[in-house]
Amino acid sequence: MRGGPRARTVSHNGKRACALPLCSDKMAVAASSGVKVPRNFRLLEELEEGQKGVGDGTVSWGLEDDEDMTLTRWRGVILGPPRTSYENRMYNLKVECGPEYPELPPYVRFVTKINLNGVHTSSGVVDMHAVTALAKWQNSYSIQMVLLELRRLMTCKENMKLPQPPEGQIYSN
């Protein structure tokens, strides 16, 4: 990752984990000014960014169902980073933005089976305490930020060479 944020190793409940600086987000401007953006306005902005393909194309997101007027259920895709055991794989995720979003973080679960510290091996649920963007959630954070952080975790020393389940396997729930 030339020029990007550098990972550092930190301890969490006695385990070593990779921590990365969080990416900046243009939505932070509204949050820092003390303005509380209504949930649906915020999610519509995130939807528009996902549809436009904002970013470098390594993550994508959108509504699970275009008819979801509550903007609650989302799908995310992470492209596995090069020079890792995740390379050349696409990881599908479900993201649920509850009624308190963006004041509370979304619920995130991998659909595609993955071996990654901070992801429950039996269900694919992302441990909110193991991912900095979720553990230290701020209302200026976004779905894109969570997906990018999960992708960066794949590049951490303790994760990058973990053996992966056979390609194409999904969690049953």
Task: Describe the model.
Helix content is 20%, strand content 19%. Strand 1 and strand 2 (15-19) form a beta hairpin. The relative contact order is 0.21. The strands form two sheets. A four-stranded antiparallel β-sheet has the order 3-4-5-6. Strands 1-2 form a two-stranded antiparallel ribbon. With 173 residues, it is an alpha+beta fold. The protein contains four helices and six strands, in the order ββααββββαα. It is globular and about 45 Å long.
Q: Structural class, from helix and strand content?
A: alpha+beta
Calculate the mean pLDDT score and round it. 85
Give unreliable regions as ranges.
1-15, 20-32
Helix content: 10-25%
Please tally the β strands and state the result.
6
Order of adjacent strands in the largest pleated sheet: 3-4-5-6
Number of helices: 4
Order of helices and strands: EEHHEEEEHH
**What radius of gyration results from the CA coordinates?**
16 Å
Largest pleated sheet:
4 strands, antiparallel
Q: Span between N and C termini?
A: 34 Å
Secondary-structure map with pairings?
Elements lengths: L7 E5 L2 E5 L8 H5 L6 H14 L6 E5 L9 E7 L10 E7 L10 E4 L21 H4 L7 H11 L20
Antiparallel strand pairs: 1-2, 3-4, 4-5, 5-6
Task: Provide key terms for this protein.
single chain, 173 residues, alpha+beta, four-stranded antiparallel sheet, two-stranded antiparallel sheet, 20% helix
